[in-house]
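We give the entry.
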Amino acid sequence: FKQKTAYEICACLVGSEMCIRDRDGGAPNNKKKTKKAKAAATGASADEAGDDGMAAASMGGALPLVAAATMGAAAAHAMGGRNPMARRMASKASGASRAPAAAMDAQVRSSGNSASASASASASASAGKVKAMPFEVVPPHALKADCGQAVEAPPTRLSGDALAAKSDAELVALIDAGALASHTLEAALGDLERAVRVRRAAVAGAAGASLDALPFEHYDYSKVVGACAENVLGYVPIPVGVAGPVLMDGRRVPLPMATTEGCLIASTHRGCKAISESGGATTVLTNDGMTRAPAVQLPSAARAGALVAWLGEPANEQLLRDAFESTTRFGKLLDVRATMAGRLVYVRFRAQTGDAMGMNMISKGVEAAMASLTAHFPDADCVALSGNMCTDKKPSAINWVNGRGKSVVAEAVIKADVVRRTLKSDVDALVALNVSKNLVGSAMAGSVGGFNAHASNIVTALYIATGQDPAQNVESSNCITLMERTADGDLRISVTMPSIECAALGGGTHLPAQRAALELMGCAGAHADTPGANAQQFARAVAVGTLAGELSLMSALCAGHLVRAHMQHNRKK
């Protein structure tokens, strides 16, 4: 405050818990005293000062009064808002000559009282002469006291030790009274489980509901606070089952799946069995790169075109690469692509991010790269670090065509006798159904990346079990399922998934249960020798699990078993 002008002081008080009152005028409802004090301070007539005093009193304080006296009509109107008395006061102040900004500087001095501060502001009301108007910056309860109203003592901020010494019931009472913020419990108490317990009691009491069925005890909240969730009430147990192991690239991989949909794990397990009995699945990783695409606005389309041309120069891309990679040990910028729309340019950065999913890593690197870019284009305005051409957690053609995260193809040849014996179906019937349903049906629906039977089911179950971001199933489930009859009469089936976004470390993958699921698959944490290999291994497993799920569901549809199986396994007895 000591560094601010009177204008800045008034501006920063709008909407805050502090007010301004005339120190000489005393109580804002003392009309005579206010009139006399204002006339002396501003040189205005007693009637004018009286109108101003009434305006201040009508608003419960003297903030608009000071605003009009020191800042002029426009500022007073902004401070007074919709109050007609404040606008009347502002119009009277508009005729006064404006004092220079330097003459309006207010030196705010500490009064020794934590609830108030004093300051002096200068204003001119007639011939450019600046006169001092003493005023105080005070909390609302001080103005209430001036008006003879009952004053509640301001809440006292308790130390962590004082809060920890209170009972749970006392803490809940403080939260209900607004004296303690629920989200600060962990930091204030130091006991993470107790913080959750107190918050549960406060939330349940306020809602008139019971949280007894939501467990919270015996959980390591140190892995959660500051990393995975806020305002924690407990945790939701979700059943976790296993499909497989499935033979993938010569090794057997179990697939832990968390779901509440009956038949899903059993069906995927049947597909894993058919794949393994036929010699296993092979995978091909075609791409690995997380993306972030800032939206950059230029003054004109011509300048936007100049930026696009500049980004196309290899030397300039290297300049951005150097800036990007200065922020990370593992992130490697692969390329930068620009797309122009009017005077907007969407700059899509693509980078390898090791075994992390990489959104934080690439965002940090892109910030540094954008600083380098704007040094060469100072008229470029970065509207948003994410301009939605990334594209994250939304359906998009760019992810379907260009990929994002890991791009994987998984393929298997299922023996005709396995199709008949294990899947209870027929090769020709499966091929025909795949065309009618997954290709033509999805095309008629206008699908983007949805040329499959239920890829999202397997992706989401694997993601929840292993601590991935489940919202990224939107793009990670992009998949086209293809089937054809081989010359030997067997079934060749493949899934192509261009945008599997996943991690082996970071985010929820470090939670104990989720890490255990990744360890079961053999791809937890950072790879010891090849950065990124564990995350790539997980993406391959996602593709093979999806392959198994597609194979089994399509077979059930062919045989007419889908409804019967769900009636048997997916209904509470």
